Amino acid sequence: MGSFEIEPRRTLANVPRCVHHSDSHQRPCRSDHAFGFSVCGRDRVSKYEFGQVLAAHFGYDPKEITPISVKELPLIAPRPSDMSLNAAKAERFLGRNMPSIVESVNRLAELEKQGWPQLLAAAVAANVDK
To answer: How is residue 126 annotated by DSSP?
Structure first.
């Protein structure tokens, strides 16, 4: 497949999220705990490493992804050099291991084959029109 370009400033927060882990997001909402945490996979990877895994899995050339430091971007708010997440707190609270990056990407591919992108787009469009 060919290469594609993504504007770096728009991708820092726009990370794929898997709806099949929605139970992991609901449990904290139904508890008495007054804290929050990001639910992530058990592998600590950079956005660059995550992009390479996604590219390879979906048939793109990982070499087409150019690594860049967050320090090189014209961001308004400062960001740390390491923005990877640690799932240990979420795993302890939820009482389960989070999936690996490979397990998550495999599941993302399964959901794509089942038509989830179209279902989600239709659901969003239906709610936007209200």
So the answer is: H
